[in-house]
Amino acid sequence: MTRLTDIANLNPLQMEQGVTPVNDEMLPGADKMLALYIHWPFCVSKCPYCDFNSHVRDGVDTSLWRASLLADMAHERHRTGPRTLSSIFFGGGTPSLMPPALVADLIDAAQSHWAFAPDIEITLEANPNSVEVDRFADLAIAGVNRVSLGVQSFDGEALRFLGRAHDVGEAQRAIEVAQSHFRRVSFDLIYALPDQSAMDWEKQLHHALSFGTDHLSLYQLTIEAGTRFETLVRQGRFIPAEADHGADLYDITQELTKNAGIPAYETSNHARLGQESRHNLTYWRYGDYAGIGPGAHGRRPDESGAPVATQRHKKPENWLDAVGRNGYGLQSETGLSPQDRGREALLMGLRLGEGVDLDAISARTGLSRTELVDDDAIKTLSGYGLLKKEGTRLQVTEQGALLLDAILGEIVL
Question: How far apart are CA 231 and CA 15, in angstroms?
């Protein structure tokens, strides 16, 4: 079993989930591709564990939001120039609350701005609530070909603890309906809940695997700053799972998913070969992506070709005001130095099972190997079995995956 306390001279690990993505271009031809992220910030309610940019509002002016998102997208097209879209991702918030006609309009606008790759992946995040599931047929007609469901648990008590608005029956029906309408279906589960035993999680995971989806996102519960759960933990209302117990559940996760043919290709994401999330791979391989909508981030060249990080205004009302004033919701466009790019490429790429090619990062950034990583630290951690280096490729091992944050802190300069 992996034990956090077995590894000498490493800082305690604090697992990081939901990391804000940054872009990458490691594969041949990837520099010609662009991914598009569209943020819909609204939810029916705020889950107590969620620190994403999500908001509850009494009503949404769909016409205003349609015009504003289209304007924000047009601005990004002006900045990127002609490119080919490899993926579109509707995230949130709860994008399955969007009217399917609005989703269709945004997909059509994207196709008018950029070329579509023949196998473009168009993903939409959805909750399993019945009212949203009833929209799946229309969303598929609109052009969505992949759905990611926020199931989170197949245990009723756990769903109530997590503040979810659906029940177990709705979760199971959502998966079945999604499989009838979309070519590709993924769903999320959260584990390492308070008092969740190894047997409890193993039963959950066996049930999840029985649906036969080609992709699963499996996250350990983390207590994020500013969430309701953080307040409850501070008040002593519940105690999070011990780190060693989380490690045991992680080991169970790796074993069962690997045996089922959907091994981890990233820290928390599992897929059959060829069914990985192409959009998220763009982030992890440091490819270019544009982000529109409140709080959306992007990594892409500016008009001169210089790499920049973009960020939209976060609060929905502030974003709308900015679009009204300027024609776009951009709050900042910050140049990325070679050091910024090298560090981001390492931090994201080492989350992947395939790891990173150090020479490729050096070639793209102009930085030498010694300016990117600490070779002595790599040798030390390789001796512990936490890293594997073959030629110019560096990977975190299965044993090291749970210690990812601490490992990155040791080797990335």
Answer: 19
